[in-house]
User: Which sequence fits this backbone?
């Protein structure tokens, strides 16, 4: 459980890598049909297995790590309640004989490691929440954001934009100003978009034939990104 952008999905992928298990992600946001979980009966035209069986099939192993993303965004209507269908999936005492309507034979899910992510724990039905061990991920501190940006986000965006450190250099002071003055979020998604924006500006400069290194520091940051959006001292707005 944690606010958006704090790395819940990335953490699941890292756990799978550490355990040397295949990783499969299932997005549950907006799912309203119980058949999405349990599959369709074969009597229906276009019947397919449910997402759980499909995920195990795609993994090609009986013990993958399946990440059920955004489980608090599940809905329910006249087609059934998918949250209720997940009760059997996530219960270790029952899921050794999971019944999918399409395959029509019990399937053993007891070897599968299930991880779920959510933003709001109160939106998860109580019986479903009772089957989970809840780990809370808090917001990043400014120092954590700085290190994540320096070690991961900047190199990632340079690679995605086909740039090197010889093309653009972002100083530590500029990174801290971006964190304090342009983003007020729990995670780092907006911070990554701002770094991406700077990289695009450098890509345009290169396309225009300007070869010198773009040095982004606290002096020219407002020229590149516009006025500072957040200021700790309210009197600065006057």
Assistant:
């Amino acid at each position: 459980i944690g606010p958006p952008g704090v790395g819940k999905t990335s953490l699941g992928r890292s756990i799978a890598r550490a355990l040397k298990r295949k990783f499969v992600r299932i997005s549950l946001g907006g799912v309203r049909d119980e058949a999405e979980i349990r599959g369709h009966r074969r009597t229906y035209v276009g019947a397919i297995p449910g997402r759980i069986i499909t995920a195990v099939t795609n993994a090609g192993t009986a013990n993958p790590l399946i990440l059920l993303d955004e489980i608090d965004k599940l809905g329910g209507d006249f087609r059934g309640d998918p949250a209720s269908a997940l009760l059997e999936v996530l219960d270790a005492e029952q899921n050794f004989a999971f019944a999918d309507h399409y395959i029509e034979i019990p399937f053993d899910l007891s070897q599968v490691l299930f991880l779920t992510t959510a933003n709001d724990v109160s939106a998860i039905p109580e019986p479903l929440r009772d089957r989970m061990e809840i780990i809370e991920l808090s917001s990043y501190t400014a120092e954590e954001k700085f290190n994540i940006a320096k070690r991961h986000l900047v190199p990632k965006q340079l690679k995605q934009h086909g740039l090197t450190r010889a093309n653009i250099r972002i100083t530590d002071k500029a990174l801290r100003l971006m964190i304090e003055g342009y983003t007020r979020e729990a995670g780092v998604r907006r911070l990554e978009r701002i770094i991406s924006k700077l990289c695009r500006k450098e890509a345009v400069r290169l396309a225009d034939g300007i070869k010198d290194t773009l040095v982004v520091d606290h002096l020219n940051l407002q020229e590149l990104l516009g006025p500072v959006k957040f200021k700790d001292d309210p009197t600065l707005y006057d």
Observations:
- The chain is about 40% helix and 10% strand.
